[in-house]
Design goal:
The protein has seven helices and no strands. With 206 residues, it is an all-alpha fold. The protein has helices at 2-21, 28-47, 53-81, 89-112, 119-140, 148-168, 177-205.
Amino acid sequence: METHWAAEQLQTIRTLMERSALYRRALEPIMLFAGALGVAAGAAGSVLRLDSMRAFGGLWLGTAAVAVVGAFLIARQQAIKDHEPFWSPPARRVAQALLPPLAAGMCIGLVSLLAEGGAGGVLSLSCLWVLLYGCALHAAGFFMPRGIRLFGWVFVAGACGLVCATALARQDLHVNPNLLMGLFFGVLHLAYGAYLHLSEKATNAA
């Protein structure tokens, strides 16, 4: 009897420790915001033909900056609503996991603003950004629930597939880089946000 009680207490403590270690802010509004922003940027870049290295880099670096600020404000609003500190230990772990790949992507993007490049260079930059973002999501997924690591793998696999397709193509691969970015950073985020909305709704109804 005492052994069973001790096991239950140990499981309760373990559950509480795991919950305190995970970042539990709702990701749905952040994903939907980032997705809408990505779709808008992809459409604007395609319509305005921002295909040069500098124009492409400037558009998507600016979009990334707006997305980061928006995600920060949404998460902060959630923390205020829940009467919890924003810069909690789980939030710090997630930020530390995200920082190296995102910083590398920002550095490469800033360098692209000073470079000249054709369609091949812009496509390579797109693949690199998608790959680094997937790595960032996968690293942050160790401190977050809801399949963020699997979502990161989708970006990594997509970037690797594009690299392979580019290498196997006998001629330059004709892909609109802005629509490609809109697909990864817009449509995929919207799809994941919709999945979170439906799954949370089903959980609440159960």
